[in-house]
Amino acid sequence: MENNVVIRVCMGPAGIAAGGRDVLERFREALASAGLDASVKEHCSSHQVGCLGLCARDVLVEVHTDGQKHTYQYVKPDMVERIVTEHIAGGKPVSEWLVDDSFDAFYEKQVKVVLSHCGVLDPEDIDDYIASGGYEAIGRILKKCLPEMVIDEIKASGLRGRGGAGFPTGLKWELAREAAGDRKYMICNADEGDPGAFMDRAVIEGNPHAVIEGMMIGAFSIGASKGYVYIRAEYPLAVERLKLAIAQARKKGLLGKAILGTKFSFDIEIKLGAGAFVCGEETALIASIEGERGMPRSKPPFPVNRGLWQCPTVINNVETLANIPYIMRKGASWFASYGTEKSRGTKVFALTGKIRNTGLIEVPMGITLREILYDIGGGTESGKEIKAVQTGGPSGGCIPASMFDLHVDYESLAKVGSIVGSGGMIVLDEDDCMVNMARYFIQFTQAESCGKCVPCRVGTKRVLEILDRITQGRGRPDDIAKLERLCKGIKSTSLCGLGQTAPNPVLSTLKYFREEYEAHIIDKKCPARVCKALLTYWILEETCTGCGACRRACPAEAISGEKKKPHRIDPEKCIRCGMCYEVCKFSSVERE
Amino acid sequence: MVQITIDGKKIDVPEGITILEAARRNGIYIPTLCFHPRLTYFGGCRLCIVEVKGFLRPVTACTTTVNKDMEVNTSTAELEELRKLILELILSDHPHDCMLCEKAGACTLQELAYTYGVDGFQFAGERRRYSKRDGNPFIERDLEKCILCGRCVKVCREIQGVEAIDFGYRGFKAKICTNFEEDLDCEFCGQCVQVCPTGALTGKLWARKGRQMSLREVETVCPYCGTGCNITVHVNRNEIAKVTAREDSWNEGWLCVKGRFGYRFANSPERLTVPLIRKVPRGEGAPEKVEDLFREATWEEALDLVASRLLEIKEAHGPDSIAGLSSARCTNEENYLFQKFIRAVVGTNNVDHCARL
Ligand SMILES: Cc1cc2nc3c(=O)[nH]c(=O)nc-3n(C[C@H](O)[C@H](O)[C@H](O)COP(=O)(O)O)c2cc1C
Ligand code: SF4
Ligand code: SF4
Questions:
Q1: This prediction's pTM
Q2: CA–centroid distance, residue A278 to ligand 1 (Å)
Q3: How is chain A split into domains, by residue range?
Q4: Pairs from A21-27 (Cβ < 8 Å, separation ≥ 24)
Q5: Least buried of A314, A495, B129, B236, by fewest C-beta within 10 Å?
Q6: pLDDT tens-digit readout, A142-168
Q7: Ligand 2 atom nearest A278 alpha carbon
């Protein structure tokens, strides 16, 4: 029977963090105890769904009544009762809790393919996925298609890997299909180690069956009967949902021997990663599954020829795989109608940083950065200017505001020294110091370097040391030249992608924000007022009322002055914590 | 065979070999640190980078196999600058105490630093410091000098099959570790010492006994067992300073703990140099000092004594009252003679060999 009341509570990572479970529980209780209207109760279903996208406003709840949808934002458990009595029972939505127009703008320019069912389906129920057309594609393929036909379709779709490098997926499958060997493997890379990225997590938590179906189609195409999902242990919910999904699929005969009565056998094993960023690199990932330390090795040979246990192996990213069932269901030309000539389809990005609408978005390739940042992201919360955006996480580069009309696709971003990468997008405004940002990323890659090769292990350490001293006011005149020499060397001599891309944040900020480096080194000033060691605090005598608030707040006893007389900061004692700046009610504390 | 071009020179090489092998076979020099011909490739030091036409970035010669018509450049201004940078980085995290280092004069890193004229002070910064000394009796592990080339890890696994060490930690802190970073507790074959290109791994017994310049090399055969490994005895003022093995010997440079570290008997004051004959019988009241127990004798006298005693026993109790047990330290020929002696001269089949125990 069709439900005419459906309640959808966002249970993505941010939704759960904001209290989604309690909200869901409250709905169940309130609906049960409301019991006033038997038909409402009967036709009501409340279930958990994956990420709805706009994490900044969690917990998001959609209430569908008689074909009408209302979305509530910032829902807390104690709001549930009123929603149930006034809206569901009373038929009058609680207008002050509903989302406003800007909420719709967030979705307007988005195109949902991978995420089309995230936030709609119950990820813990395989029947929900099947009812939406899930496993239809693999069923049809097994009965009617040759592997080559599937590969041709994927090639025609123009899908490229979403894990970072953008390698054409159909071609990868073809190479593995043609590689000699009777044992082959299909691996899903769900290691997602970039700071600030949570696309793959959202996909697995929101629609795990799409990933499984994608793996099945891939395995059938290349001739694999065993698959692995390499997923980081820090994603317990994703692991749990994936395990459940695999178990449900096995029960339905979708995984295991002689699937759907055909000759195709395939099963999936989950391997937990221990949280090393480098284990997302495909050869390190293979080593890790084999029980070795996750250290990359030189390519060639490529995994498609010699991968796991020396057998031909395809490694695909979660998002890449989640696209597959939709392409096979709706056709290559449908998929290829989105995006640009060389970058087809859509891409999921995680918008974070100084942006009003932080969250998960899916956009057609080729959209401009400006559209993402302003139309979807809604600009900054503070109203300050966006200065730059860092795409591709620690492996990517910084793109300045002057280039925001750039189209987001593999080639365009590479041309300006960044990458699409796995899809992290960190938005920076005038309060962000570019030198410090570069330092943050290098600190990350240095700590995550596997230590195998010299340029990455020692080179990034030296880059970090130079950036450390620049941000601490000890920069030397030749530091920029040293950084450039080091970064170029690390880029061209490192063994794996980690080292080869690690200098990107430094090189791109040196290119577009060189004056910030110079300000730190020559003038000993941090233009964004972030680098503590470069700040000076002083009190404006004219406006200081001598209230003493700053004197009491200063943890270093650096402020002196008599009551009702202008106070003074002793620069020798000042530790630049900024407490005085925060507490002064008369804006009399200045800093630079 | 495929034809490739290295530095403008057309050469024919077997299919499937690496660029590095192709270059070495044709007398073209490419610097390396982590490469070792008897171990699987690693590709960590990045010194053997070469330019291959059609590739965007330099590739490592030690890991890249040749292809038909491949065009390789092993030395361009850019490559040499990158190699210099890599060496500078290695040396920026190195103790710079060559004057005290056991390995001076035989150290690949030192030699490369010399060739490229780099000191590593350009990027002076933090250096790894380890204060704990490994308490094992044989192998000095001075990991501040380690360049993480991975040779020791691989030799231990691939040649010796022991896996006593592996990489630990990440980033700048990466380190070759024993299990739980306890003192090394392994077979002490010293294969790792043999392959270490720097002074990170040396013999504890070698300390201050002499370095490359003061050593005279004597090629000989290990006296410990019938395997007969070739060894090089390094002699300083008529004293053994260390024992190594040459990689072009039939044992390929590999030795066991006895051959590599068990050489101190040679210069031991307690070593027997003449036969001794017992003066006082075993048992209660026997003196403790060796001089009071034994007297020196000539070989003739000693052998006569042994022969006459064996004859007495055989006559009194029959040949089967005698048994011969020979030693793995003897050669094949010596062992053959020994069993012949026991069987044909003594007249018993009671003969065996310690390696069977
Ligand atoms: C340091 C490093 C980390 C990586 N981490 C990931 C990751 O977390 N997830 C991922 O899918 N790919 C990651 N990759 C890319 C993979 O090596 C590989 O290219 C990708 O999984 C291939 O899948 P695709 O063709 O579907 O993109 C990483 C690469 C590098 C160099
Ligand atoms: S580039 Fe870095 S992470 Fe990659 S192999 Fe070298 S040391 Fe390891
Ligand atoms: S100890 Fe020697 S052989 Fe082992 S990794 Fe370090 S430098 Fe290489």
A1: 0.87
A2: 9
A3: 5-108, 133-335, 346-429, 434-523, 535-591
A4: A22/A77, A23/A59, A23/A61, A23/A75, A23/A76, A23/A77, A23/A80, A24/A48, A25/A77, A26/A77, A26/A80, A26/A81, A27/A61, A27/A80, A27/A84
A5: B129
A6: 999 999 999 999 999 999 999 988 999
A7: 3
